[in-house]
Amino acid sequence: FGGNTFTQRLAEMNRDMKVIGFLGFVSLNSALVAQTYLPLLDSTATWHDENGWGDPGPNTSSYSCVRYTLGADTVVNDTTYQILLRTGHNSFSSPFGSFTTWYYEELVALFREDTASRRVFIRIPGWAPEFLYYDFSVGIGPYPVTYRYQASDLIVTLVDTVILSDGPHRRLHLESSWGNFDEVIEGIGGITGFF
Predict the structure, then answer these.
(1) By the 8 A CB rule, do 189 and 47 touch?
(2) What per-residue confidence (pLDDT) applies to 191?
(3) Is residue 140 within 8 Å of residue 160, measured between CB atoms?
(4) Which of these, 141, 146, 147, lies nearest to 175 by C-alpha position?
(5) How far apart are the first and last CA of the chain?
């Protein structure tokens, strides 16, 4: 036994089992925390959306850098919504000239979240209906058509937990008939852009 008595070896095994049991408890506890719904809309939420593209042709490109923030609440038809504002710019360059549109706390949409059903809804100013924006209630299988994802063939292929700086978040992996599509994270939204 390499100098260890049987009693010492048994004590070491008992200690090792306690450590394994504790780590198992921590892992289980983290998984349970991730199952608690994390709301998308809160007063400190902001999203940064930046993208650009260019064509091989002369001076044809686009670039935008926009920050979305939540403003005050408003009521429409007895339903309370949070106001979504954007600040930033969108630039476009072509053979006919360059153009930049600037935004400063411009009203983009109205949002509401039903935390009980794990769904987020959007209302575009000037449009009468309300649309489903994100559905975090789904499991593996079909993902509904939403304002954010208008493809009718989206499927949730995996539901797992991702650890972010503020703790565990539930994540949905979306695929379409042409391959990987996006990941949707509770409390964050889609990873390929919020809007």
Answers:
(1) yes
(2) 87
(3) no
(4) 141
(5) 65
